[in-house]
Design brief:
alpha+beta; 2 domains; seven-stranded antiparallel beta sheet; five-stranded mixed beta barrel
């Protein structure tokens, strides 16, 4: 009987020690997980301010905020139109003057609008007299060969998402001769298929915007020597 009691007490002691060890390990794991969770949340709310001049390996995987001068390698260029810009990103926007249908119950009204989306007039309730031609040109985006903010290589998607694009006026004289004959200009944009001062359905407007180089502030995740979205 006494021996059984000793064995029982020993077994209970072992179980108690095991419970303490497991509880301690769980607590340490919780503390580490909680610390990492708080670190991630804090990074999202208040990213770490990092120097643009050098990469700090301690910030690997963290959200950082970088302030510096945005610079590029080879400038972006729209080869189709021969338009280039000393910028990080070059955007081409294509719009066509089109019929638009607005219906309230069975009553439909038709107006003309500039739209960068092709409006399918075949789906109109009354397509006759409101036909939209097909749109041959499309929007496009062109990146510099390399975008840098100090020591960081910047992901183009990050630059597009966080930096404001500005108008980039273009002129017929910027176009190659084979296109220049088909376009006119007004207000820094190019027009084909009609008079831009009195637009009719089917006239096309091509305009450009850029994300310029120069002073910039970006927030992203540090991945090696790159600044990315996440």
């Amino acid at each position: 009987m006494a021996r059984r009691k000793r064995i029982s007490r020993k077994r209970n002691s072992i179980i108690a020690v095991a419970i303490v060890v497991v509880a301690a390990a769980a607590w340490v794991g919780y503390q580490r997980l909680n610390h990492r969770f708080n670190e991630v949340i804090i990074d999202q709310i208040a990213p770490v301010n990092a120097a643009a001049e050098r990469i700090d390996s301690a910030n690997e995987g963290r959200h950082v905020k970088i302030s510096g001068k945005l610079e590029i390698g080879k400038p972006p260029r729209d080869e189709q139109f021969g338009i280039g810009a000393d910028a990080a990103i070059l955007f081409r926007k294509v719009e066509m003057f089109q019929w638009q249908e607005n219906c309230a119950s069975a009553d439909c009204a038709y107006t003309t609008v500039w739209s960068d989306v092709a409006i399918d007039s075949r789906k109109f309730h009354r397509p006759g007299g409101h036909e939209n031609p097909s749109q041959r040109l499309a929007d496009a985006r062109f990146h510099a060969s390399e975008i840098r903010l100090g020591a960081y290589a910047v992901d183009a998607e990050l630059a597009v998402a966080q930096l404001k694009a500005i108008d980039f006026p273009v002129h017929v004289a910027d176009l190659p001769p084979n296109l220049a004959a088909s376009f006119s200009e007004a207000g820094g944009a190019l027009y084909a298929g009609g008079d831009p001062t009195q637009p009719k359905v089917g006239i096309v407007r091509v305009s450009y915007h850029i994300v310029p180089v120069g002073s910039a502030i970006l927030t992203g995740v540090q991945r090696g020597a790159k600044l990315v979205m996440n």
